[in-house]
Amino acid sequence: MAISTPAYSADTHASAEDLETAALMYLKSRVAQLTGDSRGTALHATPASEQVKETLRADSAAIDVRREKLRSANGGHSRGEVTVSDMQISTSGKTATVKLTENTTLFYARTTPGSPEAEQYQLRHTLTYTLEGSQWVLSHDAPDIRVGDLAPDTYPSTAGTVPSKAVPSSKKLSSTSRPRTTSQGTVPDKSSPTYRAPGNSTLAYDYGAMTRYALQYWSNYNPNYRTYGGEGGDCTNFLSQIVKAGGWAGTGSWPGENRTLPDQWYYGHEGNWTTTYTWAAAENWYWFASPFNSGRTEPLDYIWEMGVSDVLQIDFDRNDNISHSMFVTGRDGSGQNADELYMTYHSTNTLNKRLSSIIAATPDAWFYAHRT
């Protein structure tokens, strides 16, 4: 852990250790609130300014609601573990700023043999503390959660509110229900040499390479690619890297092709202006991958028909502009409809989050499932 070491004066009682301890205990309290662990410090009891105390009381209530929704959906979490890294501390008088990365593991209360036992997430924070007497109290928490990101359950969703008159979708929606079916079909075995990608009778992609890439780079970003921040985050940039690792070939190149066209898909190392919209924007990726253009994916009627290495996209506020992209890295059940699916994505960096948890958190969203 890299911690900066500013000069501290004796009269402020400031120390890096005190601030690190305060920050870690605060993050642990949010996790304890979600898992229902009564051994930790309650979130609303965090030493904080009066304004932040009011916010924490509201957060406590919201996390309680989320905890019960997750327990109803899949059993929720039994416990959590939190560490921090990349910590930087700076002080000015009686104010301290703590920048750090939260690394949290949330263990599932109910598990299936051979399936992930926990989800993990990584979240960057900027915490501000004020010295009151001899104690540092939290005066602001700015987690790096942006428009279009899927916030962890310790921070109840920041996705947009569904408008009262949502626009009709111009795309093929995938149902979140679990259909009753008499079919004895199974999810396709993409490791079989006879399996062929949608829309192509000859090409076989390396789906194992896709999954390995997602597991390798979900938190440790590949330095060969830029990171996309701001609204929408890095989720679709990461998804494009994943499918490219499995054999998706670029279509077109800069400067010869118009990078705004939906039938072009390529990454330009020279900068954002040399990369197609379809590479890093969720809505544009949908139109390139779907049968409307390349046909590299097949839309599915139900999200539970997905298998490992398939793709799910979400429109949080149902404005017909996709907000977020995710990749399937785990599946429970061998039938046509999964018992559970595990999603991995960037923004925020998340590994093996249960799809049932995502639905519980965003029940009014529109979902678009792709067979790759």
TrEMBL record:
One Pfam family hit: Amidase_6
Region ranges (Disordered): 149-197
Recorded coiled-coil stretches: none
Polar residues bias: start-end ranges: 171-197
Domain Putative amidase: start-end pairs: 205-368
Name of the protein described by the UniProt record: Amidase domain-containing protein
Organism: Nonomuraea harbinensis
